[in-house]
Amino acid sequence: MMALFELPQINNVRTKRNVIRALEKYKIMRVRLGERRMPKLTSTLTIVPPSFNNEFHSTTEESAIWNVDAVNEAKAYVKLIDHHINQLPERSRQVILTKFIEENSDYEAMLAIHVSHSQYKEEKRKAIERLAYQLNIVVEK
To answer: What SUPFAM superfamilies does its record include?
Structure first.
């Protein structure tokens, strides 16, 4: 009997790499939320005539706009990843948080979630796969 739906074979190495990149970006974006880009200060003063075509030429204005856009991008990305991590089953969420967010070793993560080595390896594989599917970053074979 043929199954109605079969999941495609995935490339575990490349999928894991994508998940790690997404989580690294997540951590960077969390840090970025506390930083601001400062306008450039120059030793010369130039007069820029007013523009009536809605273009900005001031570095202060450009920096302010960049700050707002960067903060909004960071907030959106952090919210997206938080949402998908929170949708994972409890054990998968524990693996992602202890191993990839807190950057513990496999051994430390295994001890933190109280499982055997073989259970940890299986849970880690499942957690990566689940998060990859949720983020739509799975690499198929």
So the answer is: Sigma3 and sigma4 domains of RNA polymerase sigma factors
Structure tokens at 134: 């949720």
Q: Tell me which CATH code domain 68-141 carries.
A: 1.10.10.10
- Residue 44: per-residue pLDDT: 45
Residue spans of the domains in the chain: they are 68-141
* Residue written as token pair 């856009």: 69
Q: What is the dihedral of CA 43, 44, 50, 51, to 10 degrees?
A: -80
CB 120 within 8 A of CB 110: yes
* Rounded mean pLDDT, 81-102: 91
Quickly count: other Cβ atoms within 10 Å of residue 61's Cβ. Answer: 11
User: Which residue type, as a one-letter code, is found at position 45?
Assistant: L
User: What ranges in 88-116 are assigned the alpha helix state H?
Assistant: 90-95, 106-113
Whole-number average pLDDT of the chain? 81
